[in-house]
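Methods — Computational structure assignment.
A single polypeptide chain was analysed. Its primary sequence is given first, followed by the predicted tertiary structure written as structure tokens.
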Amino acid sequence: MPIPTGSGRLDPCGRGERRAADATFVPVALRTSLGGPSVAARAAATLDAATGGRLLLNVMPGGDAEEPAADGVFMSHDESYEAASEYLTIWRRLLPDEAVEFRRPL
């Protein structure tokens, strides 16, 4: 069962290490609308290393409109998926320790 995420909840990466002692995999929800990909990639890499490579990410670009709005994110469904695509493009380039420069069109 994934570690719950959302407004009013603790950071899922911070809670994942505690759950790791009893689990084969450590499922954590990655909400791409909250925070930058470099910070999240670093947290996930740290948790993955701490759990011996057992991190399992559930990428969540959206959800109902109320949940992201509670965290100050106001995007339409399509905008949240477009932003998630950018986020994951950067994420994938960060994993092999590649330097990343990303410019969003104006």
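Note: Strands lie at 26-31, 55-60.
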